[in-house]
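Entry 14. Ran structure prediction on the chain below.
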Amino acid sequence: VDAGPVIVQEAVPIYPDDSLEELEARIHAVEHRLIVEAVRRVTSTAESGAHPR
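Output, structure tokens:
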């Protein structure tokens, strides 16, 4: 279980007429952008000993 702090997060809107494919596409677009940001934060702060938030 991961009990650490949230590093990055972003809300993804869900529209009433969304198909599964449309929602998946929006989630994946955000996911792909945020993973890069999360890695940047963790690696840049790991060197300084600071918290990645």
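The chain has a mean pLDDT of 90. Will compare against last week's run tomorrow.
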